[in-house]
Amino acid sequence: MRNALGLMLASVVTAVVITGVWFWTSSPRADAAAPQTVAARKAEPLPAPAAAKPALRDDVEITASLSKPAPAPAPVPAAQPVRSTCANPDALGVSRVVVIDTTGGPGFGFLQYKQFDFLTDKEIVLTFDDGPWPTTPAVLKALSDECTKGLFFPVGKHTTYHPEILKQVASAGHTIGSHTWSHAHLDSKKLTEQQVREEIEKGFSAVKMALGAAPAPFFRFPGLAHTQPALGYLASRNISMFSVDVDSNDFKSSGPDQVIQNVMTKLDKQGKGVILMHDLQKHTAIALPTLLRRLKAGGYKVVQMKAKEQLETLPEYDAMLVKDQKVPAVASRPISSVVQTVSQ
Ligand SMILES: [Zn+2]
Predict the structure, then answer these.
(1) Interval between CA 199 and ligand 1 midpoint (Å)
(2) CA of residue 198 to ligand 1 center, whole Å
């Protein structure tokens, strides 16, 4: 009896293995199944599953354009309606999406860069610095609940600590630039020109390593501490720099209420602008649901900024980062191409 059972079990196992091998090698659905597995695993934040598919689809489109035409991937039609659905009929939303041609490094935010006054009255851009951090998912949840989008400037090192959180930011459809590798103030006399360049480039390479996709060529100086040579370098790389119009001063606020007060008071005076916040600040994460409601009530409209073209990171800095992390280069392969569920 035990032998018979053993035999039956062995046949079942063999059948599963054969099916698995067949599925892996010959089934056309094997590739389509992989991203779904990954998307399902990341289901904990609300915005992730909805937008994860378009992000992956972008990858597929890029790959497809480089190789021979492939049959239309199955998830595309299903992903479209999910992306445009907003469950909150009274959401703040996104009133306008602009695409920035970053050629020559145009600057935004009137505190430092006054060339491009593209926002009309009551228009705002929500920006978040210093993540990704464990506080970031709460920020993403608040933005998702209001069906709105922001612009994130992560710190390279933080990106290596929490790559999965940065992936959530990308999956939710927000724009991601960079805020240097280690949050160094680039006007420091201690930094050589080469070190300044490394802070900038490694910051972007870190984002690319975490996402497996190129970041937007959008940059914000830590402490807004720009220098003429650094501005020149960014311009030569066609990277846009971001300053600020409305500073939340959240990093020195006494609590969430003060963050809200700071933003609303300045905004009501100025009428529009790029708002600087920090997704790393707990007060900001707590304040955001109420702040977004106040912005809606005040008639403010969110503009999402995207890049016309993504930044091509420099291979030597990508390599430097991989070496620093002491991980094999193969670590940049997507999980779905390394580990695949063949039986459950
Ligand atoms: Zn910062």
Answers:
(1) 13
(2) 17
Which residues surround the ion ligand 1 when the cut-off is CB under 5 Å?
129-130, 222
Please report the sign of the dihedral spanned by the C-alpha atoms of residue 271, residue 277, residue 282, residue 288: positive
188-198 as b/e: b if 16+ CB within 10 A: eeebeeeebbb
More confident residue, 268 or 28: 268
pLDDT exceeding 70 applies to what percent of the chain?
73
Rounded distance from Cα 234 to ligand 1 centre (Å): 18
> Rounded to whole angstroms, how far apart are CA atoms 226 and 105?
13
User: In this structure, is the dihedral angle defined by the CA atoms of residues 252, 147, 39 and 314, taken in order, positive or negative?
Assistant: negative
Q: Which residue has the tokens 């289901």?
A: 43
Among candidates 325, 65, 335, which has minimal Cα distance to 205?
325
What domains are there in the chain, each with its CATH number?
2-85 (no CATH), 96-324 (3.20.20.370)
With a cut of 80, say whether residue 72 has pLDDT above it. no
129 alpha carbon to ligand 1 midpoint, in Å? 5
Task: Give bridge partners of residue 241 from the DSSP assignment.
Answer: 107, 219
- Tokens standing for residue 238: 């066609």
Cα(130) to centroid(ligand 1), Å: 5
Burial class, 309, CB count within 10 angstroms (exposed 0-12 / middle 13-18 / buried 19+)? middle
- Quote the CA–CA distance of 47 and 257 in Å, as a whole number: 25
